[in-house]
Design goal:
Elements (H helix, E strand, L loop, with lengths): L1 E4 L4 E4 L7 E6 L10 H19 L3 E6 L6 H10 L3 H18 L15 H13 L3 E4 L2 E4 L37 E6 L14 E3 L1 H13 L3 E7 L3 H16 L4 E7 L2 E3 L2 E2 L10 H6 L4 H9 L7 E2 L2 H23 L8 H19 L4 H20 L5 H18 L5 H21 L3 H13 L2 E6 L2 E6 L1
Parallel strand pairs: 3-4, 3-9, 9-10, 11-13
Antiparallel strand pairs: 1-2, 5-6, 6-7, 7-8, 11-12, 14-15
This protein binds adenosine monophosphate and zinc ion.
Adenosine monophosphate binds next to helix 1 and strand 9.
């Protein structure tokens, strides 16, 4: 497949170092609060890529870190009077729950920064050994001027960021405003660890360099994150790895464009965000949200609106209705080779679009082209067995790659209705214990029953 590489600024063939296995590192969430759906746009695009690679027969070794120490996690733990671990455990658990609700495949490892202090200190020692660091007021800094290759991702103009220019470098206790902190000297009310440079805590960039090397090796295939991470986070990660190992860590860098609200980046600091939980409370179908966030190429910004969420729900509804219609369709006795061939053509277009820098929008339009052709044929009684087999395969491709099951809604409905009928029978037989057990079982699965004059109704809690 071909992917845009932020390092070369080109769409280029994506090939893994070891044939058949992709080693992939994702900058994961900072677990100080519930993630918003902008964060999930990035995580879902990664999930689409991962599912696509798996679907093409590749293995994927996926590592996603949890940033459990930074200014935000420390400030919140202090404000709430809980330990850093308790706070970050809580938000990590909510993050995993949301990932599951959105049907994201789990990573193979979720390393936490605070569990990898020795690895980070070893990396600083290597950078120090190679002459890239200096100590100032208890903190260790990376001297950017010591690395001529600095700026590999090169997305910002560093000329205004030189010593003495524009940025007041004194303010940072650094030799140069471009330098960045590796190890922050201990401060009051902040967790700290012992180190050869005195007590302190790691800077944010350090964790990803140390943990990616530990789990995936010093050079791996793919590094991903949102576009806001290009600078300074990823630029500095590359500098750290080059400073320690002499090698650039990832061959390929993939950055996801932002989810916007009214033209502005969705973010906690602007307060213009929705969490998955907000949307579920408003009755949203998480699979419709998944569909929406994946329906636009990851290289394009996407503006979130409730109209767009409704449109995604409608599009997904069409797919689900079609899947149900097709399942119940009685195939025409005459073969329709033209249709079967057309479906295979759309199916190829779907795969080719994804191979072309994960162009999900074009892939989905190929699916709908096939769906329209099938509906027309069904209306005309010309939907043959070969077409049905081919289209069933296409829907299965979609389900596997987009991670959106098409039959869930129907089978859940049927299952709940069957249990309600069983409960009615139990009540009729005055077996109230059994009736209550069924009601409680459903409740535990998030289904609430309401007994009314028109019979039993149910809703998702
Ligand atoms: P954080 O929890 O702040 O470390 O962010 C987790 C991930 O979400 C990072 O890859 C960010 O780049 C990404 N991200 C943050 N805001 C947005 C947004 N509005 N749209 C898409 N991705 C985002
Ligand atoms: Zn990172």
């Amino acid at each position: 497949m071909r992917l845009y590489n932020s390092l070369t600024r080109r769409v280029e063939p994506f090939q893994s170092l070891d044939p058949g296995v992709v080693r992939m590192y994702t900058c994961g969430p900072t677990v100080y609060d519930v993630a918003h759906i902008g964060n999930f746009r990035t995580f879902l695009a990664e999930d689409l890529l991962k599912r696509f690679l798996l679907w093409t027969g590749m293995k994927v070794h996926h590592v996603k870190n949890l940033t459990d120490i930074d200014d935000r996690t420390i400030a919140r733990a202090n404000r709430e009077g809980v330990s850093l671990r308790d706070l970050t455990d809580h938000y990590a658990a909510l993050f995993f729950e949301d990932m599951k609700t959105l049907n994201c495949l789990p990573a193979d490892e979720y390393p936490r920064a605070t569990d990898h202090i020795p690895e980070m200190l070893a990396l600083v020692a290597r950078m120090e050994h190679n002459g890239h660091t200096y100590l100032s007021q208890g903190s260790v800094y990376f001297r950017v001027a010591s690395l001529p290759e600095y700026g590999a991702l090169c997305t910002v103009d560093l000329s205004g960021n030189l010593d003495g220019a524009r940025v007041d470098s004194d303010h940072y206790d650094k030799e140069s405003a471009r330098d960045f902190v590796l190890w922050k000297g201990a401060k009051e009310r902040e967790p700290s660890w012992e180190s050869p440079w005195g007590p302190g805590r790691p800077g944010w960039h350090l964790e990803c360099s140390a943990m990616s090397a530990k789990y995936l090796g010093e050079v791996f295939d793919l590094h991903t994150g949102g576009v806001d991470l290009v600078f300074p986070h990823h630029e500095n990660e590359i500098a750290q790895s080059r400073g320690a190992t002499g090698k650039s860590p990832a061959r390929h860098w993939m950055h996801m464009e932002h989810l916007l609200v009214n033209g502005e980046k969705m973010s906690k600091s602007l307060g213009n965000f929705y969490t998955l939980r907000d949307l579920l409370e408003k009755g949203a179908d998480p699979m419709a949200l998944r569909y929406l966030l994946l329906s636009v190429s990851y290289r394009k910004q996407l503006n979130f609106t409730f109209e767009a969420l409704d449109a995604a729900k409608a599009a997904l509804g069409r797919l689900r209705d079609f899947a149900a219609r097709m399942e119940g369709a009685v195939p025409a006795s005459e073969p329709n080779p033209g249709l079967a061939q057309a479906i295979e053509g759309h199916r190829r277009a779907f795969k080719e679009a994804l191979e072309d820098d994960l162009n999900s929008a074009v892939a989905l339009s190929a699916l709908f082209d096939a769906l329209r052709a099938c509906n027309t044929a069904m209306d005309a009684g010309a939907f043959c067995t070969a077409s049905q087999t081919s289209m069933a395969g296409f829907l299965a491709d979609f389900e596997a790659v987009f991670g959106i099951p098409l039959k869930v809604a129907h089978s859940l409905e049927a299952e709940v209705e069957a249990l309600i009928a069983k409960r009615q029978e139990a009540r009729k037989a005055k077996d109230f214990k059994e009736a209550d057990r069924i009601r409680d079982d459903l409740k535990a699965r998030g289904i609430l029953l309401e007994d009314g004059p028109q019979g039993v109704r149910w809703k998702k809690s």
